Structures are given as structure tokens and as C-alpha cells.
Amino acid sequence: MTISLARASRATGLPRGLLARQVTTSTDRRTRKPLIDLKPEIREKAELLSSSWKGTNASGGNTKNYIGGEFVESKADKWIDVLDPSTQTLLTKVPETTSAEFDAAVDAASTAYASWRKTSVLTRQRFAMELQHQIRKHSDAIATSIVLEQGKTMADAQGDVLRGLQVVETACAITSTLMGDKIEVSKDMDTETRRLPLGVCASIAPFNFPAMIPLWTIPMATVTGNTLILKPSERDPGAAMIIAELCERAGLPPGVVNIVHGTVPTVNAVCDHPDIRAISFVGGNRAGQHIYERGTKNGKRVQANLGAKNHAVIMPDANKNLALNSIIGAAFGAAGQRCMAISVAILVGEAKQWLPELVERAKKLNVNGGFEKGADLGPLISPAAKQRVTGLIASAESEGGRILLDGRHISIPDYPDGNFVGPTVIEAATSMTCYKEEIFGPVLVVLEADTLDDALSVINSNPYGNGTAIFTQSGATARKFEHEVEVGQIGINVPIPVPLPMFSWSGNKGSFLGDISFYGKNGINFYTQNKTITSLWKAEDALGSKASVDMPTMR
Ligand code: NAD
């Protein structure tokens, strides 16, 4: 079976020419397989998930919506297959939520808001504390669901859960962080600020962090007194469903968090529903720009984290071992499907000589199914993603780049049908497609620069501003880099400088749309609106005070 180049081009966003050699090869792999084809020990994990959790199913059944505290079967007439990216086994089907179901979710969130907003901050803090306990207790189940549906390795999936858990833990400090201000502005007159919730908020998540991204928004929205509609990625909804059940176990009242599944129609319903006050989006540029425009046009507050191209600069004075290992981990970990992956290395001056060693170290990475012991990276999310990535590698070849390590034809004996691409290193130039496009695969583009200024100029000319890193042993060089680079998240000898959630996400330029970013202080600002109250209570009017008979002086 073949799919047309036009269809593949639409699905992957790549020109037909780039796809010509790719399309026919992987379409057979799209045939979904029954659960029985999974290795017995993995099938057992899938079946255990299905029998242990109310909303998710990993053995071929349907994923439910979570509306008003109930896990409900959708009446959708359109369902999306979720396939294990290592084997193409059908794990679950995700509904394209109907309009009636979507409206029911918003109604449940509106009803719950009326009472949830009035709960004390201590009640909401208690929920966050219980949730952190529940997630810690069940992190293996969440991580297992992630490995099955998303394909990343078990250790990496545990990291996905942990980075989300850290937001829950920070949200436990809401009793301090939600405090407003108060000052006596004139005699007996006070002005105070109260930070109040917005109402029903929505969160739209990408496939690459199925636990972490929902956990960027669930705790922050709820501890500030809002209610939430979450739309997980239709490609890996399981982690969000387990988290929903953990919210319930942590004592969250029905309707405070609701989950609806689907694709563009469900997202558009989020953008258009008049009762939704704010939207958090994390994902690619196309969807993000659409949601930002449609949501803000409808008067909603929108924060949108988008795509990225993250550069690491390796100075000749760097600690070579640290620099090379850091770059390899950040470029190829999670098969490059991280928005903060290092996708470009700029070797400055004599650091150019380290390129062969970089390639040698990358070759040693173990590509395998995510549950396999010793696996360093797993498959890409879908056959379409694999086509897109291999197409971009091919584009480098035809545009004059040098492929120093080619992961396109890797074969994994136990997983012949997986969407695997091995670590790939391409010596390229900034004019090439493989540099200009976000690849979102295990591909490292290597550039050379004579000086730090040249490297800075490359980075600052790039439209994205999510993350960057420098490897050097000179404090002065690091300081110059930090001051002059126009990127929002900077690592100095740190490859993936995602700030912990006591800080806020700070990707910028083309990697962010909106004014107020995720979690930390900004997260609280995003989910609250201020009320200022100015009150006058004259002390002289206190009961028992005597009338003044002095000449009024108006002071
Ligand atoms: P995606 O944009 O395809 O999907 C994200 C969400 O948007 C999903 O829930 C999906 O259903 C919805 N969606 C997809 N296309 C849509 C459309 N045309 N209209 C409306 N909604 C649509 O992203 P993805 O492939 O799931 O995730 C990978 C992308 O996300 C990469 O570009 C990556 O850089 C980015 N990302 C960014 C960050 C960040 O913090 N900057 C974090 C993670 C991922």
C-alpha cells in the first residue's frame, strides 16, 4: 500500500520532492497490530494499566472523557487510533469529543467554579499536597503509560513525571505565593490587592511530555481557584487520564478538572466557548499560532509555548568530556523530541577538532524499545514523524550537507515495525533546510564558527528563542554569552536549562506567544486577576470616641 505524496506532504509539512524516497517505505508499517503481538511482559503491563485505571485503556479499548468527576464513554462517531510507536500495536482509541460532551465539560467546570473559587487557600493547598503524594506513589503507572503510548525510555518517562511533580510541589506553597499587597495609602485609608481566579480555564497539551505538560497547568490553575478543561494530545492521552484519577483520589471535587479528547474541532471549541477565560497551549507553531489568534480574538488570555531550535556553543576551552556528553544527551535523548533538545552544535575555533569524537560517542547510543534495559532512545511518535525526520536528513544530502552519522536505516531486531531513527549528525550550513526547520528527531546539525561573536550572530539571527547553552571554562566568556545572546533560557555548562518551577518558563522570540508564561510567579499571574480594594475606616469614628470641637483644618 502506498500513500500519495500530496497526502504525505500535507501530513508532514515537507515539500513532495523531499518525500519522494520516503513515502512508500513506511506505509506498510502503519498497519495496526493486535495486542497479542506485544512481548508478553509488555502486554502484561498494558493489561494491568487497563484494569487498574478508570479512564485509560492500553489493551485496545477506548479512552474515556472525564467530565464532572465521571469517566465517561464518548458517543463520538470519530475515533483516533493510538499505536505503540515501537510496534504499531493498537493500544487505545481516542474520541473526537462531540459538541454536547464538550459543552457538558464546560458546564461541569462552570458549576464547580462557583464553589471551588470560594474554598479556602488551605483547602487548595491540601489538594496539592495530596496530589503530590498520589503522583509519587503511582509514578510507575504513569511512566508505563508514557512508554507504551509515547515510546520514550522508562527512565526518561520517570523524568517526565518528576518534572511535572515539581510543579505540584511548588504549588503547595500557594499559601505564601498567592499573598496580595496592602498598604495604608492615606490616614485610615488602606488599599489592598487580592489575587482572584479567572474562572474556567483550558489547557491544550503536546505529545512529547504527556505527564509534565498537564502538570504545568493542573496544579497552577486549581490552587489559584480556577477550574480546568484539559485536552491532552490525542497521540498519548493515558498519562493525563491517570493523573485525573489521582486528582480525584487527592480530594478534588467533581468538575474542577475535566478532560476532553480530540483534535482540531475540540481545540476550536476551546477557543470559541464563551465561558472559557484563558488557554494554555504547548505544542507546535502551526497549532499555537492558530490558537493564540483565535483565542485572543475571542477575548481570552492565551499563553502559547511553540517550537524551537536550540543551539549549544562549544568553546575550545570547554571541559571536553562534559561538553560532548551533555550535547549527545540533549540532542538524542527522547529521540530529540524535546522542545529544549539541543538540535544545533556550534563548534568554535579549535573545538572543531572534536567533531569525530562527538560522532563516535553518538554511535554508541543504544536505540531500542522504551522498556528494554539499557535503551538510550526509543522510536519517534509516528510513521509520519519518521518520514518527516528522514526527509529532512535527505534534504541535507541534496543541499550539500555532510551526513557524518546516518540513523535513517537503523534496524532494531526485536522491533522491526517501530518508528526508529538512530542518532544522526549532519555538518551543515545555516542556509539549509535541516538548519532552518525544527526537526524534532535525533538529529544534530553541526555548524562551525571562528569566534564567539560569530556563534552569537548565528543564534541571534535564528527566529526561535527557547533555549541555548555554552560550554566553556571561562567565566568571562560565559558572561559575555549570557549578556549578548537573545534567547530566553540559557545554560552555562548545562545542556537543557529548563528552570525549576520556583522560576517561570522563559522561552522567547518565535518560541512563545502571549505575555505571561508558565508556572512560578508568572504561572500565578496567568491564572489570576487582581482586585484592588480601597477602604476608609476612620479611627476617630470608633465607638466611644468624642466629637472634635477644634476648628477644622482640612489636613
Ligand atoms: P502539535 O502542535 O501537533 O499538537 C499540540 C496540540 O495541539 C495537540 O493537543 C493537538 O491536538 C493540537 N493541534 C495540533 N494541530 C492543530 C491544529 N492545526 N489546530 C488546532 N489544534 C491543533 O504539537 P506536537 O506534535 O504534539 O508537539 C511537538 C511540538 O510541540 C514541537 O514543535 C515542540 O517544539 C513543541 N513543544 C514546545 C514546548 C515548549 O515549551 N516550547 C514543549 C513541548 C513541545
UniProtKB/TrEMBL annotation:
The enzyme's E.C. designation: 1.2.1.27
Top-level taxon of the source organism: Eukaryota
Gene Ontology terms: cellular component: mitochondrion
InterPro entries named among the record's database cross-references: Ald_DH/histidinol_DH, Ald_DH_C, Ald_DH_CS_CYS, Ald_DH_N, Aldehyde_DH_dom, MeMal-semiAld_DH
Keywords in alphabetical order: NAD, Oxidoreductase
Gene Ontology terms, MF aspect: methylmalonate-semialdehyde dehydrogenase (acylating, NAD) activity
Residue span(s) of domain Aldehyde dehydrogenase: 71-533
GO biological process: L-valine catabolic process; thymine catabolic process
UniProt cross-references to Gene3D superfamilies, sorted A to Z: Aldehyde Dehydrogenase, Chain A, domain 1 (3.40.605.10), Aldehyde Dehydrogenase, Chain A, domain 2 (3.40.309.10)
Similarity comment: Belongs to the aldehyde dehydrogenase family.
Protein name, UniProt field: methylmalonate-semialdehyde dehydrogenase (CoA acylating)
Species for this entry: Schizopora paradoxa
